[in-house]
Amino acid sequence: MSLEQDFGVTFDPFQEAQNELVGGDVGSYVHIRIQQRNGRKSLTTVQGLTPKLNFKRVLKALKKSLACNGNIVEDEENGTVIQLQGDQRAHVQEFLVNEQIVDAQNIKVHGF
Amino acid sequence: MSEPVPELSLPAKKKGKKKRKTGSAAATPAADEADTAGNDAMPSLGLPSKRKKRRKKKPSADSEAADGADNGADDGAAGGDKDQGTFVAATGEEYEYGTLLSRAFATMRKLNPNIESGNKQLQLEAPVLMRVGTKKTGFVNMLSICESINRSPQHVLSFMLAELGTTGTFSGNGRLTIKGRFQVKHIENVLRRYITTYVLCFNCKSSNTQLAKEQRLTMIECGSCQSRRAVSTISSGFQAQVGRRRKR
């Protein structure tokens, strides 16, 4: 009798690693922040996306679906960061989850 | 089966009782169903399900009185009813499930008064904000809020500034001045997030906690359940260039 029969092991401990999403690594968070600018304008930054991502394409899709401008910033400490114009926190979160780039539980939305 | 049908249309509750009696009497010769005969006979009668539910909820005293008046065949049905929600003590007294449950909880509270006092909710006063000039916001009662959640103002301040992505300082008279325009709901949100991450015990949700540094890690220690857990350090992360660039 094998172990599996003894304990009825039905789940694969490595399954999580296999169906890992494209975006952030397991346990690392994607931070969505907001910064105030002059007047009622603001800036949304997305930090912590995996470097495996094709940022240009993601940005293009983001800009198109959110109807805003944005750019990519290379930061020494924080890696590649996507900047978007306006308060797009909720939209970006929805986008990342819908496109299955990041798991919903790995997204942290900051700001007020 | 043709007998019960005219009685079905009668609206009165008492009639319902009688009808059930006749129904069970009719059903038992057809198929012997022992105790549950009364309950099982109902679906075969084609009763609407609403009716059935209401009968289950009805206090047992009522059905007992009705059953007491009848005899013989009805006893089986009464037994089926009892199984649904009542308990018969050895003394013969009957207790309903609801009364027993509330009695159990009352006894539990009486014997262990501190069993539920632990999870009383943390009540915070609303943040009071005022505009300083046009671009700054003053947070008037920050110190008293920090006191009520038992955290150092510096820690709360660094968290708030990181979350809001701005800068700010304590001005005199214990007021905090933050750069940027903020509303009470914004600050409230940030404070709520601070409390969930740095104040409430992740295990028992009590606010009776302490922050302690240990080998460069910040630990949150619960005073109620003695659990310890490392919390993440505050980092503001990437800060985009906003405003005028400095001349080099």
From TrEMBL, chain A:
UniProt GO MF annotations: mRNA binding; translation initiation factor activity
Top-rank taxon: Eukaryota
Any one Pfam family match given in the protein's UniProt record, by short name: SUI1
SUPFAM superfamilies recorded: eIF1-like
PANTHER family referenced in this protein's UniProt entry, alphabetically: EUKARYOTIC TRANSLATION INITIATION FACTOR SUI1
Primary role: Probably involved in translation.
Record protein name field: SUI1 domain-containing protein
UniProtKB/TrEMBL annotation, chain B:
Entry keywords, A to Z: Initiation factor, Protein biosynthesis
Pfam families reported for this sequence: eIF-5_eIF-2B
Keyword Signal: no
Renumbered residue ranges of the record's region Disordered: 1-85
Molecular function in Gene Ontology: mRNA binding; translation initiation factor activity; translation initiation factor binding
Domain Translation initiation factor IF2/IF5: 119-228
Comp. bias (Low complexity): 66-76
One Gene Ontology term from the biological process aspect of the record: formation of translation preinitiation complex
CC terms in the record's Gene Ontology section: eukaryotic translation initiation factor 2 complex
Comp. bias (Basic residues): 12-22, 49-58
KW Protein biosynthesis (keyword) present: yes
Family: Belongs to the eIF-2-beta/eIF-5 family.
Official protein name in the record: eIF2S2 protein
Organism: Thecamonas trahens ATCC 50062
